[in-house]
Amino acid sequence: MEGVRPGGGPPAGGPGSGSGSGSGSFPSLFPPGLHGIYGECRRLYPDQPNPLQVTAILKYWLGGPDPLDYVSMYRNLGNPALNVPEHWHYVSFGLSDLYGDNRVHEFTGTEGPSGFGFELTFRLKRETGESAPPTWPAELMQGLARYVFQSENTFCSGDHVSWHSPLDNSESRIQHMLLTEDPQMQPVQTPFGVVTFLQIVGVCTEELHAAQQWNGQGILELLRTVPVAGGPWLITDMRRGETIFEIDPHLQQERVDKGIETDGSNLSGVSAKCAWDDLSRPPEDDEDSRSICIGTQPRRLSGKDTEQIRETLRRGLEINSKPVLPPINAQRQNGLNLDRAPSRKDSLESESSAAIIPHELIRTRQLESVHLKFNQESGALIPLCLRGRLLHGRHFTYKSITGDTAITFVSTGVEGAFATEEHPYAAHGPWLQILLTEEFVERMLEDLEDLNSPEEFKLPKEYSWPEKKLKVSILPDAVFDNPLH
């Protein structure tokens, strides 16, 4: 639970208390990491030393559910000269190391990132007559913070978050998010490391899909050029009823489609509902089967495989690839739409998965025939994987959110893969790699064209290429939610 109160910091020794509140000096009890972030807020808002603040009543480090200790809410007058409207500016406290005593984050020195290295911000257009900021963005930020703490996947500028529900729990079309650098807040050096500020930007479903097919930075630049869709400071307007492509139809063809053709996609992996079977083995041989329908416990990824897949998702097999954010599926909790973050044991950095079986005992196996299974949302990303990644000499990884299974598609130009042109299907424990030639990719794109029209889709749906000994099934979510189904 959270409470709303005025104040720029903790009740005891906070910025609004004592003689330091007006002079810029702070009481010694004020945590240094919090001090650094608050100082940057004071630089932007010198006339608002005690903003309204949402605070976690039971702090995370005392066993509470909310990782953010505070979310401060400021009134920003905008910039009429730049066509920036008046808005509410939200700033989180807690993703970075506020205390430096290992109660939440491990202290690793002053040179690197503080905690996760960033705090979240959000800019919400102020409605006419609105005298106080809505508090729902604070819960949205707590949801994202829970995802970061539970999965240990950090955010980067250009990342996207699939939320699948109006951010304010209304009827709004703004149902997903992109992340970018806050246009006003500068990185802060604290005694516990550096803190940067990543701003949440609300977007429509069509804009999210464009970011997935192309890249987040490109869509952010387009949003900056459309005042009602964000403008230069990327302010979220929950009442926006049109996408940027409806406002300016030329943006899709002249910018996005051309960008996809030229640049491909920056998205190199997602967490997904997926599974695979080795069809070249007898059905009763479930030791090496990766089907979600088997009743026995599948063998877990080794620590070395876990590290390699994590690097595949974050960095990619090729050099200088962009870090990747697995999408987040919304679920309803306590009347609010929050993230369904994978638990620590299901994350790529699962401690339990590293000790199940030594890496040396899991051999790489060449498979003759494979069957891939995806839910509809994951299957809809296959054309992106093929067109935006493999045709540009890259790779794409699906990591199961219900276990340690992983499927990586690779092109012939990707180095470091254990699948080869001679043996295009290869598995290392529950990690499957599939190498596809450009010719086969082009054929698959033709055969999978109806994946681009989900409204006309009826499940289950099966695609098969017998001469390639490859089968792909798109299945209902229930199959993946019930492993014994």
UniProtKB/TrEMBL annotation:
Gene3D superfamilies: Sufu, C-terminal domain (3.30.1360.230). Keywords: Acetylation, Cytoplasm, Developmental protein, Isopeptide bond, Nucleus, Phosphoprotein, Ubl conjugation. Its main location: cytoplasm. GO terms for cellular component: cilium; cytosol; nucleus. SUPFAM superfamilies: Suppressor of Fused, N-terminal domain (SSF103359). Residues 64-240 form the Suppressor of fused-like domain. It is found in: Cytoplasm; Nucleus. Residues 14-23 have a biased composition (Gly residues). Belongs to the SUFU family. This is Suppressor of fused homolog.
